[in-house]
Amino acid sequence: MNREQLIEIVREQMPEKRWQHTLGVMETSVRLAEQYGADPAKAELAAILHDYCKYWQVDEQAEVVRESGRDLEVLEYDKQLWHAPAAAWIAEETFQIEDEDILNAIRYHTSGRPNMSLLEKIVGLADYIEPGRDFPGVERLRELAATSLDEALLAGFEGTIRVLLDQRKIVYPLTLLTRNDLVAKLNM
To answer: What is the pLDDT of residue 161?
Structure first.
């Protein structure tokens, strides 16, 4: 399957507004990859697929996560997290993506994880800062991204954690571990 065919298949999975977001993540991922020395083609591929399952019914997402046998603990947390591991499994099983770094960039784009690879950081950050994003603090994240992936990601995850705390929602432990890992690395 070529790039254009994959793009069309993914586009059919989501409303136009989400497709515009995906295009923004693709563009931003490629730019960040070029800036920070990652493979732009891998960054684009992970970005194309990162939200593949976002608009599936949550029971379908849960079924895919269970079928994968991985990341099962995510099912105990907010349903907004489920599409990422589901999309990684679909990328592997349906689209035959074998590159573990691409799969992990899809799998962890919402939660992060300790010791994120360069590609994982790029796709996760691109999801936060793509041009269509408009939330308090996004401009600061974009400014930080110009000089430090880790600083920008840390600010992004801390912003997410703050919102969840303000809404009295449960914070996915992997996100807290990611935040702590970034703090430790930046304070070295």
So the answer is: 97
C-alpha radius of gyration, the chain, whole number? 15
Yes or no: say if 62 and 76 are a contact pair by the CB < 8 Å rule: no
Residue 181 lies in a domain: no
Residue 100 within a domain: yes
CA distance 52 to 39: 21
Q: What pTM does this model have?
A: 0.96
CB 22 within 8 A of CB 50: yes
> In terms of residue numbers, what domain contains 82?
3-136
- Whether 183 is in a domain gets the answer no
Measured CA angle at 67 (ends 108, 44), to 5 deg: 35
Cα separation, 14 vs 25, in Å, equals: 14
Is 18 domain-assigned?
Answer: yes
How does pLDDT run across 66-75, given as a tens digit for each residue? 999 999 999 9
What are the C-alpha distances in Å from 128 to residues 7, 61, 122, 134?
A: 21, 22, 10, 9
Q: What secondary structure letter does DSSP report for 96?
A: -
